[in-house]
Sequence to fold (464 residues):
Amino acid sequence: MRFNWVNEMAGRRNTKQKILDTAEALFAESGFNETSLREITTRAGVNLASVNYHYGDKRNLVRAVLGRYLEAFMPALEVELQRLLARDEIEMRDVFLSVKQPLLSLNGLRANGAAIFTQLLGRAYSDVQGHLRWFIVNQYQTVLDLFTAAIRRANPALDPETLFWRLHFTLGACVFVMASSKALSEIAENDYSTVTNTEDLLDRLVPFLAAGVGAEVDLELTEIHRRLANHQ
Amino acid sequence: MRFNWVNEMAGRRNTKQKILDTAEALFAESGFNETSLREITTRAGVNLASVNYHYGDKRNLVRAVLGRYLEAFMPALEVELQRLLARDEIEMRDVFLSVKQPLLSLNGLRANGAAIFTQLLGRAYSDVQGHLRWFIVNQYQTVLDLFTAAIRRANPALDPETLFWRLHFTLGACVFVMASSKALSEIAENDYSTVTNTEDLLDRLVPFLAAGVGAEVDLELTEIHRRLANHQ
DNA sequence: GTCTATATTAAGATAGAC
DNA sequence: GTCTATCTTAATATAGAC
Fold:
């Protein structure tokens, strides 16, 4: 008699699920490399060997954790961007506000989901093994293209190279601040007596990023250096 | 007969120096935790045990590597900031330009020094052990205070809390982009056929950060949330 | 699918001869 | 100060009984 499907249908978390949920929390807390399979399995209350049984190896587990978030985030972002691009005029601020809602919706998926996802994203980008970054860019190229299209509509004066760099500045600011959000929120709470949740943080980020990405391109300095370099 | 001082005077790198230089390069390449003492000693051509002999333990070695950069960077930054603060009017852009030169000067200290230092700084901030962050803030509080003073002179409308967050956005953008500068520069070179060195990168960062930090404070959104939260 | 037990590898650190 | 040799710990991963 097979009862396995009953367990899955009834939502009772099986071993595979427990591993995924626990790994996600621990990865977000300490990073991929700093989290051992032992910690994961201990906290999940499952056997050490089950990770390898269900996911093959650790790298595969990491992909599974990140993938679950991307599947929720990217389609939601795509909807927002399509709606935005249907407009006649696009303000830079609205482009970043389009990211805010899909990101916040991850908090519905799981407690603290937005922060966890961003931290995973940051680690994916900067971690030793570059395979995660490749995985994301290739899987969601179309959504990323929509995003840059919206930015360029908001500020057509941006040349592609400037845009390239500014979007990476943006990514850096987001990743860093979300990764440190817990520690930073505590400091802010001590010093300014104001509670800062994810939404407050994003509302602070939006004007900063919109101003930064939308800033007039200053060719004074860079052009001078470039010409000097070309004459060498 | 003592010849040790001859070695040191003549600039012949002794074991302790070799370890420091090699560790610095490897830390920047792969991070603190990802770099083993075995890698360091092998590449430096010294014995494994010598790390513990000269530096006690690994954590101490990390501090020594970062400390050498801070000693060069912080006083230079202080000079620039003092000069800036002597002016009547301060533009936001000039505050960030004040950081540019001290940072670039690290390239004179060692090839690629600016990028290495920033990467170390980023890792110091986000690494598991929070001891490095504490070390920096306490040791160089005065310089950091000068920096925030300059920012506030450039935009007196900034409330302390907004400034706090925006400076962390700034730090995130810098750290991330410098840490990924090698990979990103290669992509940019492929796609836009332009070489990007450290100075170009900083010249691109300055307008972005100046606009972001200097942006008008938007209390619309945050205030609404705050009030809602307070009424709960 | 899950368990115990173990193989394998690699890390940081130290003892003690030279 | 430097070396060899070794200790201790902890990681990923697998074999094989149940």
